[in-house]
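S1.2 Input.
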Amino acid sequence: MLTKVAHLADRSVRYLEAGSGRAIVLLHAFPFSAELWLPQLSRAPRGCRLVAPDLRGFRGTGPAFEDPGVEGVTMDGYASDVLALMSHLEIDRAVVVGLSLGGYVAFAMLRRAPARVAGLVLANTRATADSPEGRANRDRLIDVVKRDGPGAIASEMVPKLLGATTQREQPDLAETIGRMIRMNSPAAIAAGLAAMRDRPDSTALLPSIGCPTTVVTGAEDRTIPAEETAAMHAAIPGATLVVIPKAGHLSNVEGTGDFSTVLARWVPEVPRANAQGTSGS
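S1.3 Output.
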């Protein structure tokens, strides 16, 4: 696995990369960074190239990130960054895996450039916009992070993100997750909250999704109700539903084995050899 920085036309994007072959772009949840995908990056499926960018402002430090441009960022802005990174890496089409916030960004990518999404994994996310209560809670959290910093966000969010089984059987994971949150700047977290608060409803987009799609949820996800996930799955033509047992909202780190199985489904098929030992047609 390698850590790299792509210097794009209007900003720099840090990303993690592992493996080679079919491109799979991994979009992290809020309020994390590309490090959330370390369980998958460390075990990249053979035949797949995993690319995990930091969404704008998250995790970036140093001279290349002095002005990340997070003020007023939208889901379209995040999506534009990812599409520009794909172009920089000469990736014309990719399987896009969006976890929570990453799923919202994936929907924005579908609106902007559907031909560039070869496959889709929507994990622990929703197509609907925030309810009035949800918007009010985003505003409250913006005030919290501006006043008390990322540590206060971590203290409030971590118990809600992890499933009961994870909290009982993997107590050290809560500290790891909290540390990832605390590594982000207050500005990036506040901007992410505002972008989620103001994101459009993507429900009408679901029936038009034409690429192979897998919807993933955790059996113990308290953030996205099971019935909402089921409705989203039912609205996407031909979509597959995967429920990861004993996992909460962060299914890729709580159920790494099951999530890796989902990614492995995108491994390109290897042509069988014919009797002469050459590849068949």
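S1.4 Remarks. The first helix runs from residue 38 to 41.
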